[in-house]
Fold this sequence. Notes:
- It is a single chain.
- By secondary structure, this protein is an alpha+beta fold.
- It folds into 5 domains: 5-90, Alpha-Beta Complex (DNA Primase, Chain A); 104-232, DNA primase DNAg catalytic core, N-terminal domain, CATH 3.90.980.10; 248-361, Dna Topoisomerase Vi A Subunit, Chain: A, domain 2, CATH 3.40.1360; 371-432, no CATH class; 443-586.
- The strands form 4 sheets. The protein has a 5-stranded antiparallel β-sheet with strand order 1-2-3-4-5, sandwiched between helices.
- The longest helix has 32 residues, at 533-564.
- Residues 38, 40-41, 48, 59, 61-62, 64 line the site of zinc ion.
- Zinc ion binds next to loops.
Amino acid sequence: MFFPEAKISEILNISDIVDVISESVILKKAGMNYFGLCPFHSEKTPSFSVNSGKQIFHCFGCSAGGNVLSYLMKYHGISFPEAVKMAARKYNIELDNVALSPLIKKEIEFKEVLFRINKTVMGYYHDLLNGSKQADHARNYLKKRGISEDIIQEFKLGYSPESWDTIVRLFKKHKISDKNAAQSGLVLERKQGQGFYDRFRNRIIFPIFDVNMQVAGFGGRVMDDGMPKYLNSPETPVYSKSRILYGLHSAKQFCRQEGFVYIVEGYFDFLSLYQQGIKNTVASLGTALTSDHVRILKGYSTRMVLVFDSDAAGINAAKRSIKTFLKEGVDIRILVLPDGNDPDSYMLNYGKESFIQLATNAGTVMQFLLQVSINTHGSSVEGRIKILDDMKQHLILIQDSALRSLYVKELAETLHIDEKAVLEKVREYYLDNSVSVLNYSKEDKKILESDRREEQIISMMLNYPETIPLIKKKDATKYFYSEKLKYIAKQILSVNHENKPFVNCIMAKMENDKDQELLASYAINDFFSEEDIHRTALSLINRIIRVRIKKENTLTNKIINAEKDCNSELIELLKKKQEEIQQLHHR
Ligand SMILES: [Zn+2]
């Protein structure tokens, strides 16, 4: 433990898991639990549950589970101490004077240093754009592109001067070490000679925020025909391109309000939509959308509209991203803007209402792909066969079989090909290219399958702590076969069952993710009822004890008898069996 136990308890007591998870997952109450789409695996129907009374989460689909701290760790991909800090910050809990392991402390401090550097640089570039003479052309450029003063201030746009050492000098002034300077990605090491030079020169600067409003990186755009047109910060410990979406920090509340999100490509696309009041928008910044991006967005809205330019590059980009969306099972529409427009120019030329009208009529992914394929191959017999070849690759990616068969039907009708023949083609292709769709193994679940009653006892203790004295008295957990469950039981029994919140206190004792997940799954599964709980407990305990004693007695007796008869063959066989049984239960 890096923090005193009392501190962790304080955080667990004050924080509210529903409140915390709601920031990244849309939760709806159903019965005792809240349900939402799991941020840790692809799914269309919610199997991710959060229990407010027990302060835990559990996914029935992928078995992810734990308490509020494990959630923060898993969701943000951060360490335990960072999760503690994050929760403490949210609930204004003082965390000073806690002892951290040197390594972890270093890692956290390093990230904080990078965030601080980014913030300083953002302020510096922003002030230059706002007030310096040398930024006149940058301000004019933004004006020409229709970016308002309000937007410049809200998104802290900046200007990097035509100079090789503006930031180098700024770093010197702030006494930033060479190592930190290099890691920030804002300066680059000189290839010849010593020292550094600025990465961004004579560009409009767009700070890139993470969802917690910290400056993670920067993008810079030239104002003439210079190349590259866009330049972004490299990956750093605080900037992960596969996870960050531009604008999400300000768009997230609007995505929830509107129930859907527009995904555009560039900074200006984003800013011009936002400025016109279409605030449920994020930008992918030219990188292909990843599963992480889609899962993060799912936390704010499950319907998405991909907005692309009608040029070949736009269509190719759309095709690349579609795979990810199909796999993630989200409701995605594709909006291809007409006549060489990008969202920015379209808004300027035709206005907001027209854009919304287009978006409302945007087609599904399959309609889009089919149209692209028809445009490419035409509708001759050969063309239609080629279209079918194109489409089967996309169809096997759809995991919802009902939805897939609908698309097969639609495709068959459009191509005037027999539905069965289409289906056959798709099935053939599927078998030749078996796609791995599961992103978790079921092995973990299998470990415990032979110990149903032991699992039931665990679940009973968690849901009805009043049965614990009886279980203790009978020493029932001593008879457990499963070492894993024995360990969990031991942790449960080590906590005073009158403590509240009981499950959360035990959760804090679990040493690793897997154990937390297991604990959460038992805590959320309540097979019992309040009435007669003691009688149920007693009969469960007795059965466990009886089964164990009987099994061992039978084998031991048989071995003893065989030894009496000097039947060495049988002894061998029985001992083998005994070992097998033990192994089975000790896995
Ligand atoms: Zn899941």
